Amino acid sequence: MTDVPSIRRLVKKQSMPMALEVVVHRFLLPTSISPNSFKNPKKLRFLRYPFIKGSEGGPVLHFNEKNDLRVQAGWFPGFGEKKTELPEIVEAGDPVLHEAAREVEIDEIGSERVEKVIDDMIAVMRKAPGVGLAAPQIGVPLKIIVLEDTKEYISYASKREIEAQDRRPFDLLVILNPKLKKKSDKTALFFEGCLSVDGFRGVVERHLEVEVTGLGRDGKPIRIDAKGWQARILQHECDHLDGTIYVDKIVPRTFRTVKNLQLPLPAGCPKVGVR
After folding, report:
1. Given this model, what pLDDT does residue 237 score?
2. Spatial distance between the Cα atoms of 17 and 98, rounded to a whole number of angstroms
């Protein structure tokens, strides 16, 4: 939900405690193919995942702010296949972040193309660095999430925050077509952020315990029983697959810039922590 380097800069500049979250969401929306793109090479972004089908099995079409047509249906002739850099983040407002993703079909699992999407997701998450990513955040409307929390990431939070969040390290998880359900009615409120809305935070209420079922990248069924911070990460990532970002769920009047994260909440706002 926020990138570790920005936290480091903030701490160095303001000598304040580390922020609460390190969940990161970074992904690339498909290429904008328009005449204007050729005038400005920086605006030319190549299709990385030409196999993604629309709801009727056809190509996925997007329009940008200038109504330039973006077609996710094949490599741009003579260019795309040579591009090797990792995807960039898709920012809030782009349709791919606000529409439901589709499930990965059984015959797609293990394919070279789906494997590339997963590998890119993992690489981008670790490069950020972050603890979670959803496929729509690289412009891929598929139900795939990856998450991982390490001792290093956790070390950036204070001991008090770690205990309050019930946060523990866990190994890399890759989940296709995840289905989430709550395991109790108990909830907690903590600040969340997202690089699709970079530089801001807001308090979100989440369930403390959840169960997630789905498929691993090998196609075998998996089940995760999670609580505390891992449960929050899973809920945050699964929201992305439904076209929901955290700002759609924030507690009113808690939205703020990163530099104001430590300032008190307005009167009448619920207290941060377990309810």
Report:
1. 96
2. 33
Backbone dihedral angles phi then psi of residue 120, each to the nearest 5 degrees: -65, -40
Structure tokens at 21: 């979250």
Task: Report which of 167, 210, 211 is spatially closest to residue 190, judged by C-alpha positions.
Answer: 167
Mark whether 99 is an active-site residue.
Answer: no
Amino acid symbol at 239: D
- Mean pLDDT, the chain, rounded, equals 79
Please identify which of the residues 21, 148, 161, 237 carries the catalytic annotation: 237
DSSP 199-246: TEEEEEEEESEEEEEEE-TTS-EEEEEEEHHHHHHHHHHHHHHTT--G
Q: How far apart are CA 228 and CA 206, in angstroms?
A: 9
Summarize pLDDT for 201-247 with one digit per residue, the tens: 999 999 999 999 999 999 999 999 999 999 999 999 999 999 999 99
**Length of the chain counted residue by residue:** 275
Give the CA distances from residue 48 to residues 31, 54, 97, 225, in Å, rounded to whole numbers and listed in that order. Answer: 8, 16, 17, 33
Distances (CA, A) of 271 to 119, 187, 264: 39, 12, 10
Q: What pTM does this model have?
A: 0.74
Q: Is the pLDDT of residue 71 over 90?
A: no
For 98, the token pair is 């606000």
- Spatial neighbors of 160 by CB under 8 A, at least 6 apart, are none
Strand order in the sheet with 221-227: 132-134, 144-149, 170-182, 209-215, 221-227
The residues, any chain, with a CB within 8 Å of residue 133's CB and separated by 6 or more, are 24, 25, 26, 27, 121, 122, 124, 125, 145, 146, 147, 237
Which residue reads 């009167």 in tokens?
267
